[in-house]
Write a structure and sequence with these properties.
The complex is a heterodimer of chains A (about 90) and B (about 300).
Chain A (H helix, E strand, L loop, with lengths): L1 H85 L2
Chain B lengths: L2 H88 L6 E7 L6 H10 L5 E4 L5 H11 L2 E4 L6 H4 L3 H19 L5 E2 L16 H11 L3 E2 L4 E2 L8 H13 L5 E7 L3 H16 L3 E3 L15
Parallel strand pairs in B: 1-2, 1-7, 1-8, 2-3, 4-5, 6-7
Helix pairs in contact in B: 2-8, 3-5, 7-8
Classes of the chains: A mainly alpha (about 90), B alpha/beta (about 300).
Chain lengths: ~90, ~300
């Protein structure tokens, strides 16, 4: 009777362990898929950062040229004002 | 202890060993596989935040760009208003007027020419090309109150007169450079070779078409009625005689003198020309919106 109980308990434990191993294996496989997915997302984000940084740098350069244009035009307007004053 | 108890002990020890081994496997799996994924997730979130910040900066720069465009638009309107006022005042001259015009520069002689003009406090017109020192000198012309005219960028007849498109591509490029350097948009043109040139005859009728198109686009072109002949190789004495001789025999109110600031002989003759012309009672002026256009007859 005692032996039957021991065998029963051992069988349950073995079944539980097998079940856990199967569950764990499945978990690891889905983890691997998640890891690949995250790697791809990281790659995309890094590429987007490079593209957006390029866009930002280009816009900053364009704006610097425009600031220079404004400065030059202000200087020209100043020179026109000086010329008008000379005649007054 | 009997056999049964020993077997039981062994089984229990085996079970515990299995549990411990199992625990170690789970722990290693966490360290090697699960923890890195969590770290990757954190890194991914940082990247997304970084990207968001960059996008916000792009939006900010776009907003700044719109503001600058508005300022440029307002300044252009202000510029035109002031130019009109200046031109009205500078055109208030009577008697015989000389317009000194210098083509093909700027060059290494331009600085000295500017100094001579400063000495007599007179203004001139510079029909520029795409020289190396264009930025430096166009800024000086504006600062000193001279007029910048557009001659052409390349001065290559075979290129600029090959079609209307080629001519305007060349002209627009030069115009954009001048405006970029100075804020000033020139409307005054001198054709390379003048409007009467025959070098453009490889393209029949091009000068007629160009002179009409320039007018349609709001430009004014100026030829000359006194030629110093410096481009033909005249020395400084000859240049002086050509100009002063023409002025002495002049019935015209407007004398538009062709010179080139790329010639040292012109630079050498200039002081005497200005001095004697002033003594003859002439006034000097630079081209503006009120200056009558001096045109040759078109031969092509």
């Amino acid at each position: 009777m005692k032996n039957k109980v021991v065998i029963f308990i051992l069988s349950v434990l073995i079944l539980l362990m097998v079940g856990f191993i199967l569950f764990f294996d499945n978990y690891l496989k889905s983890n691997d898929k998640l890891s690949i997915k995250i790697d791809n997302q990281i790659k995309n984000e890094e590429n987007n950062i490079i593209l957006n940084n390029n866009k930002l740098n280009k816009k900053i350069s364009e704006n610097n040229i425009k600031y220079k244009n404004v400065e030059n035009m202000n200087n020209y307007i100043d020179s026109l004002n000086k010329r008008i004053k000379q005649y007054e | 202890m009997n056999e049964k108890q020993i077997v039981k002990m062994i089984l229990i020890i085996l079970l515990f060993s299995l549990l411990i081994i199992f625990g170690l496997i789970v722990r290693n799996t966490y360290i090697n596989k699960i923890k890195p994924i969590n770290e990757k997730k954190v890194y991914l979130e940082k990247l997304k935040q970084n990207n968001k910040n960059i996008i916000n900066k792009i939006k900010e720069e776009n907003r700044k760009s719109k503001n600058i465009d508005n300022i440029l638009k307002e300044n252009k309107a202000k510029r035109e208003q002031l130019e009109k006022k200046v031109y009205e005042k500078e055109s208030n001259i009577s008697g015989k007027v000389i317009y000194l015009t210098f083509d093909d520069g700027p060059s290494i002689y331009t600085n000295e020419i500017l100094n001579i003009l400063d000495k007599y406090k007179i203004k001139a017109t510079f029909f520029v090309v795409c020289s190396n020192n264009l930025e430096e000198y166009t800024k000086k012309y504006i600062e000193k109150g001279h007029t910048i005219g557009l001659h052409s960028c390349t001065h290559k007849y075979s290129n600029i007169y090959s079609s209307e498109e080629s001519y305007f591509n060349d002209l627009n490029y030069l115009s954009s450079l001048v405006e970029k350097y100075t804020g000033y948009k020139s409307k005054y043109i001198r054709f390379p070779g003048g409007s009467s040139n025959t070098v453009s005859r490889f393209n029949r009728g091009i000068m007629t078409r160009l002179s009409n198109k320039l007018k349609e686009n709001g430009y004014k072109y100026f030829d000359w009625n006194i030629d110093s002949n410096d481009a033909a190789g005249a020395n400084s004495n000859q240049i002086y005689s050509n100009v002063i001789g023409a002025l002495e025999n002049n019935n015209r109110n407007i004398s538009m003198v062709l010179m080139h600031d790329t010639k040292s002989s012109t630079k050498d003759a200039l002081d005497s020309i200005i001095k004697d012309a002033l003594q003859m009672g002439y006034t000097f002026a630079n081209i503006n919106d009120y200056t009558p256009e001096v045109h040759h007859g078109i031969n092509n």
